[in-house]
Automatic annotation (TrEMBL):
Coiled coil: none
Pfam families from the UniProt entry: AAA_16 (PF13191)
This protein's GO CC annotations: cytoplasm
InterPro entries: AAA_16, P-loop_NTPase
Superkingdom of the organism of origin: Bacteria
Species this protein is from: Streptomyces corchorusii (Streptomyces chibaensis)
GO molecular function, one term: ATP binding
Residues in Orc1-like AAA ATPase domain copies: 2-151
Record keywords, A-Z: ATP-binding, Nucleotide-binding
Protein name: LuxR family transcriptional regulator
Length: 679
């Protein structure tokens, strides 16, 4: 560990200190973060800590909770020592029960309790390398845990690349920067590991490596091991010795040369391993029930310095993440597709992994692959991963064999993107499904009207647009139920709430009555509760209660709408604990749109029971969320509730200021806030 005296001193203090439990190592590729993690692991192990290692891999960055599973998996035998609530949380996350995914907060608390239980017998060190590739759900939970570790019994150390954006960038964890080696240290390291280098070569390596330890060793080895005399030329990558490529690119050039020299069979083995996320950190755990491709007959790559042997499993692993990415980049498109097809067969029992590989292996439209992606998107939705759901639905649309299925899947993707606050992406999806000079497909109407409604409070045009789409759909497919029809109906009901126009409500009620059976029972609950609960609310409370008995079968937006219905029939307090558990997950990793309305509901219930300080905090959180994601309608709705709260507390001036702001925006649009509530 030449030239790392300061970092080693700080890391040694980190292991022994009681007040500093989480730390992030940040530096460029090859600067030595993994070596520092190895050093800390040895320190902690020598001090009697249990050490758990995990590594983020790019291939899993879209799979919800993949990274968290690695960290928690070795601790699962102790889960039975937790209370029933936390045992149920882990059962849900690990797929052993069909409950709704827990919130970031409830899962984070369960993980903290598990860590506390295990560390009561032996202190723990959690090491996470390549944290930039961790999935968003895992980052949210691990960040939550890292901020709340107390005492010295559990430590968390995360390694991050400085050139790749990461969810940990905003996790508010302390950071230890890891920079390049000072010149003197770089010279000492090179002389120690590569003694006897030609003076010119030594100067060239030092100049091109710029203090990066991996570059010092790999560039010098590339030249030293080359007996043809061309190593120095390859190092430069240019006839002009003054050209200084970025260190990662220089290393990729070195690794790419070695990879191209391998036999075809070995390169294919490496490619399958790279695309399946085979690690570059020996000894790291896999998620429970998961498996990765096991590279075989790759001794040639081991001899070339591209692979290492995992001391725990004895398997081949990549020597460094940059080797893995270079393997993929140097492969041809056909080679990558063939590798993905092979991996889809390996993971045929895993709906999300197999669909991901099938999608990458497929060029032409294929209904079987599109359906697999649609199933993966449904799985992601129920696990709270909006980004993955949108990506898989979009790819499913691209691979659809007919126009109708393509339009439906694009509509599903746009619908999910809108609920996730991805307005620009939702708009692009809508435009891609609407050819010039043709009628807008009903699925596109859902999104375009949704955006006009929530972005700008357009309750007049969007009402007419949705009514027309429902009428056209009813004429074209009389008596047929569909997801698109359900979404149009529910959006129309939401629009009518804000318009507060009795004539619009009567038109909507008549329209839904004319449709008959295709209108879902839940939509009829929304109609009766949201419209005129005095005239139509008989029995609604019981209908809401029956629907809430099977949350596992509901999408996130269904739960939100039912909660609004519960508010209208004065039973919201029964479901507030569930809303509180759900809102954290949706706000941080999932369908952010639902969390906005859930926060409205929580705030209203807090106001009703006199929890005014809590209601103020909830309202401010909602205002920040709605404003930052561009939901102007919901942002002003939140201001209206904050104004109402101020009036209840006797803060007259603040109430008047908020009322003026809301009125100036709402009145020209015909929007009424305080008498209605969102869907």
């Amino acid at each position: 560990m030449i030239g790392r005296d300061d970092e080693l001193r700080q890391l040694s203090a980190f292991v022994t200190a009681a007040e500093r439990q989480a730390l992030v190592l940040r530096g460029e590729t090859g600067v030595g973060k993994s070596a520092l993690l190895d050093h800390v692991a040895k320190l902690a192990s020598g001090a009697g800590h249990g050490v758990i290692r995990a590594a983020g891999v790019e291939a899993e960055s879209g799979l919800p909770f993949a990274g968290l599973h690695q960290l928690v998996h070795p601790l699962l035998p102790s889960v039975d020592g937790l209370d029933q609530v936390h045992r149920d949380v882990f059962a849900t996350v690990y797929g052993r029960s069909g409950g709704k995914p827990p919130s970031v907060m409830s899962l984070g608390i369960a993980v903290l309790d598990l860590l506390s239980l295990v560390s009561s017998a032996k202190p723990l060190l959690l090491l996470l390398d390549d944290g930039q590739w961790l999935d968003a759900s895992s980052v949210a939970v691990i960040g939550f845990v890292g901020r709340r570790l107390n005492g010295g019994s559990v430590k968390l150390l995360v390694g991050l690349r400085s050139d790749v954006a990461s969810g940990f960038d905003t996790a508010a964890l302390p950071v230890l920067p890891v920079g390049s080696l000072p010149d003197e240290a770089a010279r000492r390291l090179l002389d120690l590991r590569r003694p006897g280098l030609d003076t010119h070569v030594r100067r060239l390596v030092l100049d091109q490596a710029r203090g990066n330890p991996l570059a010092l060793l790999e560039l010098s080895a590339d030249i030293d091991g080359d007996r043809t005399g061309g190593g120095a030329a390859r190092l430069l990558g240019s006839p002009d010795a003054s050209v200084r490529l970025p260190v990662p690119r220089r290393l990729q050039h070195v690794y790419g040369t070695r990879i191209k020299a391998l036999g075809d069979d070995v390169r294919q083995e490496l490619l399958r391993g790279a695309l399946d996320g085979v690690g570059a950190t020996p000894g790291t755990a896999l998620a429970p029930g998961s498996r990765r491709y096991r590279m075989r007959d790759a001794e040639e790559a081991l001899a070339a310095g591209l692979l290492s042997i995992d001391p725990v499993s004895g398997d081949f692993v990549f020597r460094h993440p940059l080797v893995r990415s270079t393997v993929v980049q140097t492969a041809t498109p056909n080679e990558r597709r063939a590798a993905h097809a092979a991996l889809a067969r390996v993971h045929r029992d895993d709906v999300e992994r197999s669909a991901t590989h099938l999608a990458a292996a497929t060029v032409d439209p294929d209904e079987e692959v599109a359906a697999a992606l649609e199933a993966a998107a449904e799985s992601a939705t129920r696990r709270g991963s909006a980004v993955a759901a949108v990506a898989w639905l979009t790819r499913a649309a691209e691979l659809s064999e007919n126009r109708e299925d393509r339009s439906r899947r694009l509509g599903d993707a746009a619908f999910a993107a809108g609920h996730a606050g991805l307005f620009e992406q939702a708009q692009r999806l809508v435009r891609s499904d609407h050819a010039a000079g043709t009628d807008e497909p009903p699925a596109s109407v859902v999104t375009s009207a949704y955006l006009a409604f929530f972005e700008d409070g357009d309750v007049r045009h969007s009402h007419r647009q949705v009514v027309t789409a429902i009428e056209n759909l009813g004429e074209r497919e009389p008596g047929k139920a569909s997801d698109v029809l359900t979404r149009l109906v529910n959006l129309l009901l939401a629009i009518d709430q804000y318009a507060g126009d009795p004539a619009q409500w009567e038109e909507t009620r008549a329209l839904l009555g004319s449709l008959g059976d295709p209108v879902p029972a839940r939509s009829l609950i929304y109609q009766d509760a949201w419209g005129d609960v005095v005239r139509h609310g008989a029995g609604v409370a019981e209908r809401v209660e029956r629907e809430f008995t099977d949350l596992s079968a509901m999408e996130p937006w269904d739960i939100t709408r039912l909660s609004v219905a519960a508010y209208h029939v004065d039973t919201l307090s029964h479901y507030r604990p569930h809303l509180q558990r759900t809102v954290d997950r949706e706000a941080e990793t999932g369908f952010v749109r639902n969390s906005m309305t859930m926060l409205h509901l929580i705030m209203l219930d807090q106001m009703a029971v006199g929890e005014w300080d809590e209601a103020e905090r909830t309202g401010q959180r909602d205002l920040e969320l709605t404003s930052s994601h561009g939901y102007a309608l919901l942002a002003h709705h939140t201001r209206a509730y904050l104004g109402l709260l101020a009036a209840m507390r006797g803060q007259v001036e603040r109430a008047r200021e908020l009322q003026a702001t809301v009125d100036a925006w709402a009145r020209p649009r015909g929007v009424g806030f305080l008498t209605q509530i969102t869907d």
